[in-house]
Amino acid sequence: MFRIPFFNRSSPLAGSHVGGRLAAGSQEPPLCQHCRAEMPLFFQVEWTPGSHDTKRQLAVSACVSCTGEDRIIPTMPKDHRKGCSVSSSFLKSSQTNFRLVITDVNSRPVPAKPAPEESAILPKRLEADHHGVLRCDGRVFGRLGGKPEWIMEDETPGLCDQQEPFAFVCQIDSGWLFETRPKAAPQITLDLAGNPAPSRRPGYRLFNGNAAYFFATTVDGQPMAYVITQCQ
Question: Alpha-carbon distance 166 to 160, whole Å?
């Protein structure tokens, strides 16, 4: 379990925000393995693992330039269930049109690289209260730390490579709309015929607007992340 700083009221988190800049220490924006387009940063959160003094950041990027029936939401292992073991090879191979990057925030962090001026998603602060509730523009965005609030059955994973445990980092609630700049290209979604087409709805949706639950683990000393989605 992760420590969450106590706040008497909602408080900005230095490294937590929607859109905007890449995570500290990141280089170029990740590319979609299907269309080779740059994947915009949807959001990142900063937290302190309970057994560490060093803060960490989780950055979540996803492609908005292409889609397909097999990648609307992240794929799950065939034997996925509560307490299941997930392989590190699956964590790496499954992130083809999205990317989950965990970085350590050092005492002298690498300056975050500015997003390009035409960055599609508008940057906004994320704030957390003493219950771990994340808010953006005063509206509930999700949760940071503690325990996930599943909207369906509990799907908390067990171990990575049958060795390292997964720990819950954060979740975002279903239906969240990521506001975009006026000239941003529309997100590519599937039309009624099942063909990729520009969305007629404003803004971007991560993983088709499903609730998303993010977990962290360690593989050969390197932090890795896993995401599970659920819909109502």
Answer: 7
User: Three-state SS for 171?
Assistant: strand
Nearest-10 Cα torsion for 195, 201, 203, 205: -50
Name the amino acid, one letter, at 131.
Answer: H
What pLDDT digit, counting tens, does each position of 160-192 carry? 999 999 999 999 999 999 999 998 999 999 999
- C-alpha 83/C-alpha 177 separation (Å) is 31
CB atoms within 10 A of CB 31: 15
Distance of alpha carbon 96 from alpha carbon 89, whole angstroms: 13
Q: What are the b/e assignments for 56-90, b being 16+ CB within 10 Å?
A: bbbbbbbbbbebeeebebbebeeeeeeebbbebeb
pLDDT band per the 50, 70, 90 thresholds, residue 14: low
Interval 74-104: pLDDT, tens: 999 988 999 999 999 999 999 999 999 998 8
Given a contact cutoff of 8 angstroms between Cβ atoms, the answer to whether 62 and 212 are in contact is no
How far, in Å, are 93, 142, 177, 189, 204 from residue 201 at the CA level? 30, 22, 10, 10, 8
Token pair listed for 68:
């397909």
